[in-house]
Write a structure and sequence with these properties.
The complex is a heterodimer of chains A (62) and B (194).
Chain A: E1 18-25, E2 30-37, E3 43-47, E4 50-51, H1 56-61
Antiparallel strand pairs in A: 1-2, 2-3, 3-4
Chain B: H1 4-14, H2 23-35, E1 41-45, H3 51-56, E2 62-67, H4 70-78, E3 83-85, E4 96-101, H5 117-122, H6 130-138, E5 143-154, H7 158-167, E6 170-179, E7 184-192
Parallel strand pairs in B: 1-2, 1-4, 2-3, 4-5
Antiparallel strand pairs in B: 5-7, 6-7
Helix pairs in contact in B: 1-4
The chains are: A mainly beta (62), B alpha/beta (194).
Amino acid sequence: MRRSLLDILACPLCRGDLDVEVIEEDQEEIITGNLICKECGELYPIENGIPNMLPPELREKV
Amino acid sequence: MRDLKTFLQKFMQNCQNVYEPHEDSELLLRCALREIREEDTVLEVGAGSGYVSYFLMDRCRFLIATDINPHAVRCMRELGIDCIRTDLAKGLKGKFSLILFNPPYLELEEWEKAGDWIEIALNGGKNGVEVAARFLVEIKELLSDDGRIILVANSHNLKHICREIERLGYHYEIVDRERLFFEELYGIRIKLKL
């Protein structure tokens, strides 16, 4: 995901802003990492360049 | 320029478990092409293979697509579409001026439920309206004041969808239709009542 996408992402649980923790990135985008809610601390993984914003209870179900 | 051949090549490589574009996808693209403006910020919900977004992404200021299916978001990424994996539009904030959704609109019988990603792409629940109704509720805060939604419906769920649209205080207009063998498809253009 491109870093600029951070402007339009929010925690699906509490609507809090997100911090990003980068594990791997190239010139264009973040490939692997985590988005972490500044309010509630919930973590949303970025894998293969795609953020997974599913609320935690759905992540397990689908 | 974007062409169908490039789309199909990428789709064929990544198409397993992703809804293949059909007449309903074509109808949504047709409506969106008439509606889209260069200054639009566009959100496509449940974008599947990315067929619609792929042909729109160069025609607006910004476009982001979502899908709950991990295979679908992978397919979209291959096509260069900015996408996130989520349920409808959960995890998004801000305002969009054009929002597109071709919802699951079939009321499947038990024997038709395959328990796979394609079922999720087709199954609209009772009267084929449950997912569309939830979308109309959840999307309101992401639609700019003068923004437009294009939603696909069919002859079976149209009256239920229109009832939901009115109940939630939107304006709507049917802007396109296509007769198929066993049903009719509709493109509905929806705006906030100001």
